[in-house]
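Practice problem: predict the structure.
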Amino acid sequence: MSGLFPSVLTVSTLTRQIRSTFEKNFPPLWVEGEISNLRCPSSGHRYFTLKDQSSQIRAVLFRSQVERLKFALQDGLDVFVFGRLSVYEPRGDYQLLLEAVEPKGIGALQLAFVQLKAKLEAEGFFEASGKKVLPLYPQRIGLVTSSSGAAIHDLLTIIHRRWPLAQILIAPVPVQGEEAAGQIAKAIGTLNQIGELDVLIVGRGGGSLEDLWAFNEEIVVRAIASSRIPVVSAVGHESDVTLADLAADYRAPTPSAAAELVVPDCSTVRHHLGHQQVGLERSMRSLCVAWRGQVQELTGRLPEPRLVLGQFVQQVDELERQLYVKMEYWCRNLQVRLLRHQSTIWERNPLIDIRRQQLALIDRGIRLVRGMSGCILIKRHQSELWMSQLNQLSPLAVLARGYSIVHSQQSGKVVKQSTEVSVGESIRTRLHEGELICLVQRTHHST
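Answer:
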């Protein structure tokens, strides 16, 4: 058998020799074609067929190369691929082991921009309804940018000039390079955790698409969109539009424009406050005039205490007069009855009984008159006591002893406790004679 077939090879040997021949005789080369039958297993590698109108070849892009791609592979995408020709020995298939993939007709970064924009837009990251409102007068401002360069200088100069009251917290980050996107996203998250910031400015100066690419990375866009603090994006120049610009609550064409957008001009605010103060003073004067009229009207409706006391005195006198009339009537009626009984007794002539009854009646009458006199004195004393109590309860009597009644100028109500007024509030104090308009400078709460 060995004589008939002196050079018999096994399939594995033959396949190995073919592979060695391919790899030695075909240097790395560029191939143009369309991606089809793309497979993305959990290993991270990419397997697909590269085809044209009449032929096709298998291609493999290993995970380490996939991670360097700026765009996503997809079926139907025309590409240029660079790699070595090889053979997959278990199946005997020849294939391309790729080192690079570039989209045809459009740059890799531009394609990645379009793909990521479509993905994030479908998730609602760029919806106008989710944008947050910038504060009118920010007190604390966070800056996420490079610690060197024109951007940070412009931001600090303009903010300090326009709104020196603002406190600035700087999170220095690299704005280009492989680590830039992760550092920018981390800084945004850290500033959100710190809290107490009113607005964030994220940006850098101008540059090429490659220089600005960190602000097109998905991790940065998601960090901006999830920020609880309003974010202003200021990346590059006016013509540069990044995905960070689309995700931010506001986009400024330059860092300088971002600073002017975030903070007001203190001179303009001061001028506006001056106008507001004039209007407020005018309104306060009008309110004071109106309140003074209302107080005077309410004061006119209150009854005079002396008149009220006079009415009670008259009622007491009237009750006393009625009591005397009734007592006099009762005594006369009793006297008439006594005379009538006396006449009856004398007619019957019971001299002893008559004398005894007469003395008893006279004694009863005397005691009755004494009792009624005592009752009258008690009633008179009680009436005088009531009059004295009424005089003591009179507001005017209290004011005459040095006390005063305090009214709030704002609400018109009587102030009973120091906690019902605040420092700087106007109050009206009514004295025994006249009134005082006072300004509260300090309050003291009794314990």
